[in-house]
Amino acid sequence: MAKVLVVTSGKGGVGKTTSTAALGAALAQSGQNVVVVDFDVGLRNLDLIMGAERRVVYDLINVVQGDAKLAQALIRDKRVESLFLLPASQTRDKDALTPEGTARVVDELRERFDWVICDSPAGIERGATMAMYHADLAVVVTNPEVSSVRDSDRIIGLLDSKTARAEKGERIEKHLLLTRYDPIRAARGEMLKTEDVLEILSIPLLGIIPNSEEVLRASNLGSPVTLANPQSAPARAYFDAARRLMGETIEMNVPSERRGLMNKLFGRKVA
Amino acid sequence: MNLFSFFTRAGSAPVARNRLQILLAHERAMGGNADLVARLQEEILAVIAKHIAVDRDKVQVKLDRGNAVSTLEIDIEMPTPALATRN
C-alpha cells in the first residue's frame, strides 16, 4: 500500500528539501520504491539537492497538464536505483497546479511507488496546500526557534482542516522532525528543548536532526546526506527517522559526530 | 554586561517557550477569527462616529495578550468643541 507523505513547515529555510532528499534516499537505501516530488513550482531546488539538476527535461506541471507522460518526467537516481525524482517547473507559476491534475498524478504515483514524498514550498498558499492535500501522513519540519514553531502550529491546523483526509473526517498522521538541533545549547537553556517543542505542538516526534556541517557539504555535492556521508550524525538521525516511518520502534537520541583523537585535537573548525 | 551577569545569565529558552505558549493559545482560539480586533475597532468607531466627528488619526488601539486575560484598549481623542456644543 503506497503512502503519500508531505514534508512541510510553513516557514522557509528550516530544512524541508534537505529532509525530503535525506528521508527519501534513506527509505530507498533500505529497498523501498521511492519518488520525491518537488511542489515548489517556480523555485525548484530538490533537483539540485538530489544532484539531478542537469537531467531535468519534463516536470510536474508538464505531467499535470498532460504535456508529458509520468515516465518521461521521472528521473532515476544514479546511486540508488529505487529512488526517483519528479522535479518542479522553474518557469511556470503555482496556478498551473490544478487540483484535478495534481490528483491524477498523485494517483498514478501511488500505483508505482511505496512512498510518494512531496516537498512542500514554504508559506500557506496554493503550492503548499496542493502538496499536503493528498497526503496520508505529514512530516512537520521545525527548528527549535520561536518563528518556526509558530508556523508549524499553523501548518498543523491546516493539515487538520484542508487535506483530503480531513475533509472526509479522517485523521492525517503528523510527525515532528526537529532539525538544526544543538543539544549543548539546549542543555544550557539557550535553545528550546525537544520537550518544549513537543509540548507546544503536541504531535509525536519522528526524529531529531543535529545541526551539522555535513548537511551543507551534502548539498554542495548534490547528494542527500544519507548518501554523501552515511556515518555522519545527521545521516544516522535521518536513517532512524526513516525506520520509524516504516513502523520500527527505535530509541530516540541525538546522534553526535564520531571524532577520532587527532580530529578531536586538531579538527575544531573556526566558526 | 559585567563578569557576574555573564556567569549568572539565565537561558533565553524559557522566555521563548513562555511567549510561544501564550501566543499560540490565542492564535488557536482565534482560528478563522484572526481579524477580530480590526473588526471590533471598526465597529466601535462607527458607533462613536454616529454621535461625534472623530479624527481617525486621533484614535489609538492597543492590544495586550496576557496569559489569563487580554485587554483591548481604544483611546479616542474627542475634540472639545464637539462635546461642548452638546452641553
Give a verbal description of the structure.
The complex is a heterodimer of chains A (271) and B (87). Chain A is of the alpha/beta class and 271 residues long. In chain A, strands 3-4-2-5-1-6-7-8 form an eight-stranded mixed β-sheet, with helices on both faces. In chain A, α1 (16-29) packs across α13. Chain A starts with a strand and ends in a 5-residue tail after the last helix. Helices cover 41% and strands 16% of the residues of chain A. Chain B has helices at residues 3-8, 13-30, 36-51, 80-84; strands at residues 59-65, 70-76. Chain B is an alpha+beta fold and 87 residues long. At the A-B interface, α7 of A face α2 of B.
Largest sheet of chain B: 2 strands, antiparallel
Total of DSSP H or I helical runs spanning 4+ residues of chain B? 4
Mean pLDDT metric of chain A? 93
Rg of chain B, please?
A: 21 Å
The largest sheet of chain A has its strands arranged as: 3-4-2-5-1-6-7-8
Proportion of strand residues of chain B: 15-25%
How would you characterize the largest beta sheet of chain A? Answer: 8 strands, mixed
In quaternary terms, these chains amount to heterodimer
Task: Throw out a few tags for this protein.
heterodimer; A: 271 residues; alpha/beta; 8-stranded mixed β-sheet; 14 helices; 16% strand; B: 87 residues; alpha+beta; two-stranded antiparallel ribbon; 4 helices; 2 strands; 52% helix
In short:
Chain A is an alpha/beta fold and 271 residues long.
